[in-house]
Amino acid sequence: MTHRDPESDSAAEASPVLAPGHTYGTVTDKISALVLVRPYNWRWFLGLGVGFALTMMLLLAITVLLVHGVGIWGVDVPVMWGFAIVNFVWWIGIGHAGTLISAILLLLKQDWRTSINRFAEAMTLFAVACAGLFPLLHLGRPWVFYWLLPYPNTMALWPQWRSPLIWDVFAVSTYATVSLLFWYVGLIPDLATLRDRAKNRWAGYIYGFLAMGWRGSARHWHRYRTAYLLLAGLATPLVVSVHSVVSLDFTVAILPGWHSTIFPPYFVAGAIFSGFAMVVTIAVPLRAAYGLHDFITTRHLENMAKVMLATGLIVAYGYLMEAFTAWYSHDPYERFVQLANRPFGPYAHTYWMMLTCNVFIPQLLWFRSVRTSALGLWVLAFFVNIGMWLERYVIVITSLHRDFLPSSWAMYHGTVWDYATYYGTLGLFLSLMFLFIRFLPVISISEMRELVHETEQDQERRAEQLSTEGTVS
Amino acid sequence: MKPRPDPDPTLTDASSVGGELPILSAGPLFWRSLDERAENGAPRPDQDQGLSNLVALQFDPSSRREFLRLMAGSLALGGLSGCAIQPTESIVPYVEAPEQIVPGKPLFFSTAVSMNGFACGVLVESQMGRPTKIEGNPDHPASLGATDAFAQAAVLSFYDPDRSQVVTRDGRVETWDRFETLLLSLREEKARTKGAGLRILTQSITSPTLADQLRRLQEQFPEAKWHAYEPITRDAVHAGCRQAFGEEMEPVYHMDKADVVVALDADFLAWGPGRLKDARAFAARREPEQSPRDYILGRRSDDAPASVPMNRLYAIECTPTITGASADHRLPIAAQDIAAIVRAIAGAVGVGGSSAPVKITLPDRLAQHDKWIDAMVRDLKGAGGRGLVIAGDPQPKEVHALAHLINHALGNVGKTVEYLPRIDEGPADQVGSLRELIGDIDAGAVDTLIILGGNPAYNAPADFHFAQGLSGGKIRLRIHLGLYHDETAQLCHWHVPEAHGLEAWGDLRAFDGTATIQQPLIAPLYGGKSALEVLALLLGEPGRSGLEIVREYWGRQSLPGDFESAWHQALRTGTVAGTARKPKAVAPRGNDIPSPAPRAGESAGLELVFRPDPAVWDGRFANNAWLQELPRPLTRLTWDNAALISPAQASRLGVQEGDVVELRQGGRKVRIPAYIMPGQADPSITVTLGYGRRRAGRVGNGVGVDVYGLRTADEPWFGSGFEVVKTGRQHRLAATQHHHRMEGREPIRVAGLATYHEANDFAQAHEQDRGRGPSLFDDPAPQERHEEGMGNAWGMAINLNTCTGCGACVAACQAENNIPVVGRDQVLAAREMQWIRIDRYFEGQSEENPPIDFQPVACMHCEKAPCEIVCPVGATTHSAEGLNEMTYNRCVGTRYCSNNCPYKVRRFNFFQYSDEETPSLKLMRNPDVTVRPRGVMEKCTYCVQRINEVRIAAEIQDRTVRGDEVVTACQAVCPSRAIVFGDINDKQSAVAKAKASPRNYGLLSELNTRPRTTYLAKLRNPNPEIEALTRHDSQRS
Asked: From CA B556, how far away is CA B776, in angstroms rounded?
């Protein structure tokens, strides 16, 4: 930002990225205490317990699935893909915000990312883990999933490279790998801090093992910074590529409602939209529970709200263009899906709920009072989470259930096992999140210390600037 | 004829089973364990336990889902170990003489399957001694190479593990020996009283040998009586002939000679002994691009089509049938009003001797159809001896008589209809015969009742209270012979398992009297006995095998030439030469028009119409899962029956689809779900028979609703004076099609004959509009790519003009390709597995009487198949010959292919649908087709196993495969030859010629999928006068 207008200046003034008065020591104390000092309390156990119970339900659902087959789900003949694919796309989309925050905003030197990137990255990782389950489980014969990989075998069989599902395998596995590396590399200095501060012997050993011998030397820091930047560079294209490839699963098909060139950008925008909604969903209660108001300030909330508003508008544009293209194309099948069946067909309620959650409600973000209200934003983010799930439901189900030949039209409804699997992955996500909050620093200590440094420098620079400006004038 | 081989001594030697046993003829080889128990005359405790458990299990009303799992135990008792044994007598193959069986090479044997007593000649494929598939016998007059769905499903009935497997007495296990003893002593006892008190109840019988036995029995026991009853009775047909011509006769139609056909509540394409050949001959007159003779013979000559005009069918019916759907004009009229219409026609054509036509006015409620009927009559008269009026079996005899007289007056007799002497034997008035029997029972005049087949306790008219009469204790000895331990068996003292038609010797006659010897393909699977063997005991001829009985009878007939060669000839060809009956000359008896008996309160009030079910018929096929799951042609329902109500009537009654309604008549009532049927006559509510079985077996028990409780002897087919009451309950009907309009997408292209003559390529206009734009890809059009000498390129053409929607292809495909049954729950979840589905659409927006179209849809084998590019593992690929192949073993089940299939013809094994455990069903499978496991996709393969079989034969003979050499299962079975398959590179092949038709179009070809299966557009041949009427009506409204 070369030009700062007075208003945004004042806004920055009103809510800084780090509350004033913090030093290296206070930052380190505060964040590491969350892991090392803070006693276990019933709230944490309750949260983990809920997550764990849902995870057990997931395991039950998976067991039943493996024993009986994919028929326990609601999938049927026109609608061969159901909840599994909806959930897969939804979870993958959520992951995107983490990568965007950690990689792109890092490269763009957006200092406000610092206090949210750690748990956003963790969220990415856990979301990808949940997402990854679905394509495997939805196979008719999940035990032969590895046939999708190009591994050497005696039959000399390779995957069928023209299928977008193969591209998906590569896109998602690359994404999972890079996200994990990025997250772990970022953790190393903090793990070393925890190692050094741990009172418990075993905790010290474990953190020490995970810190991989980090000593904080200048050479370490130099290499760390280089590696981190390189990984950020690697992760950046993934933000765009993964969901583009996921969208190709649909667009490559000839199905009306899927076969659309607008899908890749519209899916990426949707992914970031839903991802930021999920970050807000996590950040607001986290901030409240652990008193992190100093680190996750109103500034953060407002910035995330702005990203949601922007991406939400892109998504709305996507909806509009889908309908327009259908009308303009004169393709009777496309017109039927976009202009008749989605808005007025048997699944019209999902379509209108989707529009409400993704387009109408987010318009409230134009108001600053909404953007800066933690509770208001949290409720709004919840709607966006639901809306983005519905969006995938609308895309997958309403396109399939009434396609070309009216004779094969039928309805689709998720079964109890569909819901059990979906809520089960929510439980898995929740469990992982609670474990993460308990055992790893939710905010990057080292980067916060940098931020303290930068803030101080910034203030000094400003002071200098002011004084020079004063001299000049 | 080879001498009868000696039974294997180790199997039948009494010492090997440790007791003094009579050596039984054929079946008991399997029954060693039962023989063993027979020696002491009392069951061993453990075996008894096991068997009663089995019997309990067999009729446990457990869910059909469990059916797939529960079957395993039953055959263990039968001693079957996975290999079946040829019957001990020699049987003669159809074409190839089996010097020895070549493993993996099927043999075909000619025999016949029975439907309401009448024969359909078939060739049964035998794989290593196991009958696996039924094909029509091209040399048989009733088959002409085709069969219906019932015959296709006979294989499953044969292997049904629920069939009764043991002789029982009062529910306890008995032996055939003791039954034999019983009947022999019964004979001695009856010999003293000339058979007084002895009654035999059969179904319709055409079997010459069986009829002969019954006649001889009658001679020996003059006091005994033979009754016959069939719920789908043809009483009215016979009585109508008697009324018109003074004699009971069998009308035989020559559809290929008829220019104008009027069907009065007559579903002649689906009902009646000659329905298959009628369907073929009717179709021959629907195809303007081929001469009828070529069509019937399955040829396609290059000559210009003969100048035989397309026929015109008028269907006047109360409920839509496949015949009505094939009609050019269809008029929905209550069944009870048909009588008034037939009288009007009779008057107009001058029946009754008066040379001048008499105008008979229609009742007011039918007056609106006056002009329609006038136009039809003018058309009929104009046909000049080439018209045909057919009265349906459910119409009363007076309607039949009038229809015969109309045909006579128009000069149609001898041209489009001929009369043969009656074919089936026994009482002509079956309902009367059963009434007499029940009267005798009530009067205490019956002390012994032998029921040979049939299930009267379930399907007798409700007002006879047959079940109470049977079990009322007035009959000292009740004996039942049947395939199942059914409702009737339960009320009888003795039950003897009946041998299925595929495992017993016998004979049957076809509609024209042609006799066929039934050859057993296999020794009785469950030790069943045929009716011939049971009657032989009563005749004092114990120990005679079915073969001896049949041979003895035919030995007494004067067959041409020496008996042995005539016998062999009959077995080989499937028909006994010289048995077809000659037509008789007929003359009307009397001069006055018989006036149909006025029906109760000739009002427009509701009427209840009973119809045989298109899948389970009168209930005899209730335990056949293939048929239960075969979508009924018009409703697309499976696993259920429903009350069909017209849309207008439904809105009047406030009823919606799936609402359970109560039908009340007198004290009788039945609760049944409603189905809204466009094209149904408003006053008519149609219910189908055959459901609500209590002792059908694990598949059929409790499926649907039993409506026999409303059916009386006086009104067997329709009756009035009942009411419909909503119950407020709901029942989900398992339909395979939920959307019935074409939504302007034209999957079926239809035109009138006039349009066709103007522009015969009307069906292709669609594609021409869209055109083929410039392309960057090397993309030759199909016709350029397929050339002579380029190898085989398989393709299919389906003629929508002749497809009747009967569903035989669906059943044939299921039998050929080991397609599993999924059950009602899975059909409700839209997961049926049949590779062919028949789409049924209503044209236009009319709900009163929409034109109805059918379209069989299976995998199109697209040249640019959307499914292939999206499969991540390459499990579905294209063969060089143009097949879209499915490699089951490679499939991981992403189901992406199905999503991307615009025709939605792929089927997925959501669960382990194939029963891999039941031993008898393993025997049934086609060994050339993989049984698919859970989690893989499947679909039509163009019967690739048949292609490969022909290819192997051709390679051995060092020649190329000829264009018409491969015949798919659906093609073979089609009664109307609507399906043509072959090599489209061979320009002389029937399929290449069909595809050259201007009516040829590809379904959704605008998507550039280039389907190898294409359709020939449908034509209608409307009467311009009636068309003008309808136009006038629609303008007025």
From this structure: 78
- Is residue B990 located within the same domain as residue B844? yes
Condensed to tens digits (0 to 9), the pLDDT of residues B726-744 reads 998 999 999 999 888 888 8
The answer to the question of residue B705 being in a domain is yes
Same domain, B299 and B276: yes
**Whether B910 and A75 lie within 8 Å, measured CB to CB:** yes
Are B797 and B1015 in contact, with CB atoms under 8 Å apart? yes
Q: Report CA-CA distances (Å) from A401 to A76, A307, A345.
A: 9, 34, 11
Q: Are residues B250 and B298 in the same domain?
A: yes
Six-digit token string for B810? 């669906």
Rounded Cα gap, residues B829 and B840, in angstroms? 20
Cβ-Cβ contacts under 8 Å for B164 (sequence gap 6 or more): B482, B483, B484, B485, B489, B495, B497, B498, B526, B528
Mean pLDDT across A84-105:
88
**Residue range B583-598, pLDDT digits in tens:** 988 888 765 555 654 4
Q: Do the chains contact at A159 and B872, CB–CB below 8 Å? A: yes
| pLDDT at residue A371 tops 80 | yes
Q: Please tell me whether residues B723 and B756 are part of one structural domain.
A: no
Q: The domain spanning residue B689 has which CATH number?
A: 2.40.40.20
Interchain CB distance below 8 Å, B890 and A157 = yes
Following DSSP, what letter does each residue of B884-924 receive, concatenated? EEE-GGG-----HHHHT-TT---EE-SS--S--S-HHHHHH
**Residues B414 and B430 occupy one common structural domain:** no
Kindly report, residue by residue over B916-941, the tens digit of the pLDDT.
Answer: 888 889 899 999 999 999 999 999 99
| B820 and B878 belong to one structural domain | yes
Whether A400 and B747 lie within 8 Å, measured CB to CB: no
In a domain, A465, yes or no: no
Inside any domain, residue B493: yes
Q: What is the pLDDT of residues A56-87, one digit of tens each?
A: 999 999 999 999 999 999 999 899 999 999 99
Residue ending a domain, among B400, B421, B442, is: B421
* Chain B hits for A405, Cβ within 8 Å: 745, 747, 839, 857, 902-904, 1003-1004
Residue A183, in any domain of the structure:
no
Q: Are the beta carbons of B936 and A144 separated by less than 8 Å?
A: no
Q: Is residue A182 part of a domain?
A: no
Q: Could you give the CA distance from residue B76 to residue B83 in angstroms, rounded to a whole number?
A: 13
Cα distance from B187 to chain A (closest Cα, Å)?
A: 57
Structural domain boundaries enclosing A93: 9-148+158-177+238-456
pLDDT digits (tens, 9 = 90+) for A115-169: 788 888 899 999 999 999 999 999 999 999 999 999 888 888 889 999 999 999 9
Report the C-alpha gap between B888 and B891 in whole angstroms: 5
Q: Are B272 and B294 in contact (CB under 8 A)?
A: no
Does residue A206 sit within a domain? Answer: no
Please report the number of interchain residue pairs, chain A to chain B, with beta-carbon separation below 8 angstroms.
Answer: 160
Do B248 and B224 lie in a common domain? no
Question: What residues of A are in contact with residue B870 (Cβ under 8 Å)?
Answer: 162-165, 252-253
Alpha carbons within 13 angstroms on the beta-carbon side of residue B401 total 24
Asked if residue B174 belongs to a domain, the reply is: yes
pLDDT band per the 50, 70, 90 thresholds, residue B111: very high
Cβ distance A81 to B910 less than 8 Å, yes or no, reads no
Report which secondary-structure segment, H or E, holds B852. strand B852-857
Q: Complex ipTM, two decimals?
A: 0.90
Among the listed residues B413, B360, B351, the one whose alpha carbon sits nearest the alpha carbon of residue B591: B351
B892–A69 CB contact, under 8 Å: no
Two tokens at B631?
Answer: 């979508």
Among B69, B828, B888, B895, most A C-beta atoms within 10 A, so best to mutate, is B895
Q: How many domains does chain A have?
A: 1
Which string of DSSP letters, residue by residue, matches A427-447? HHHHHHHHHHHHHS-SS-HHH
